phospholipase D (Kribbella sp. HUAS MG21), 434 residues
Amino acid sequence: MKPSDLFKGLVAIATTGALVYGGGAQATGAAQQQNAAPGKPTTFVANDPNGSKAERYRIRDYLVNLIKGAEKDSSITIASYRFDDYEVAKALIDKINSKRVTVRIIVDAEHRGTMPYRDVKIAADASRLSWIKYCEPGTSSGGNKHTSCIGDHIMHNKFFLFSKTGGKSNVVVQTSSNLSEHSGPKMWNTAFTAMGDDGKWLYDKYQEYFADLNSEQKRDDQYQHFIDEHGPVSNAKYKLYVSPRKESSSTVTFANILKSVKCDGNNSGGTNDDEHRTIVRVAAAQLAKGGGTAVAAELWRLDNEGCYVDVVGTDVSQAADGPLRGGLLRAPTGKYHGPEVREFSTNQCGTHEKNILIDGHYAGKPDQKVVFTGSHNLNRKSPWHNDDVILRITDADVHEKFKDHFFKIRAAAAITWQTSKYETYDPDDLEFNC
């Protein structure tokens, strides 16, 4: 339970079903008949942990449908931190046994003992075409597990690549959802999909990153290595940031991203007034010391300079010098109120997302609509120790879909630490159950 003297208030608003927005029509074929998730590559898919079973498992079921839809002589490439889902394993085994689809999977070494992993490995070994592996683990030390492929902590990725599925080629799915019960269907998650000609560049970049993971070459600055070996790492629409990178106060990737935000100079979008101030929205599983503290400092600075900053998280550190008390809740020095800050209560189904949305001035250009998503948490491990990805998407339609979903999870978060919209009150006597 969070300390009562730190509670700022509560918003309890009923939530509705999961959101599904699409870059492709829902399928009516065999794969789609198995569940209610999209049967073809779809730009944006989100689950609802408080909804029906179909709504809770929407992202998992979507992945199953894409696996089932993989076409003859195509390939499936997966990097997944956890691998503990029987439906995904079953779909993969069926494809492996068909010997018409090549499957390659890397899993974090800590999760190599699950039954789904073992079952897929038996099928893959028998096929001699497909494989599933983990990177050779080291000995835990210094608070790091050494179960990653490149860094010294964990292989935390969650991406799925399909050379051809559901009538689309170059399909890239980047999700926040793990292939496990708790941090999959029991938490809010999103999945973004690129495809076709639009996805070709990104598909190739992810394949290059997968090859780096597969090589098991340990390095403390994969970020710079990826730029040097596989650059350019961006095009007009996408940019890929990978970790780990050398630890220092200047290498918190998300904090550096926020340093490229400017609060004014927009002609449209942003706040709904004549000023069009830039809006920064954050949906985060964690805001923890280290990287999270650096990000919180940037968010407070931006709000103080006139941006509208809106944050919702599941685990926001309350250490005296941490991101909440030492960052987001600092008293403003200008005319603005301070960031909007909300958090899920202990017994709620929280968000597992790692999303930052920018509506306004970014990287020297006004009127931008930018989404950052991926597997990278706002903590110490993701920037400096994990194998992790941040994907930048510059696209107004995609931003709108993520924004609509953000409003939904913000409404579901029970604790309001700070808001300019209403008086808050103490929620100590209320209970929330996931």
User: Anything to note?
Assistant: Residues 253-418 form a domain with the Endonuclease; Chain A fold (CATH 3.30.870.10). The CA atoms of residues 255 and 295 lie 5 Å apart.
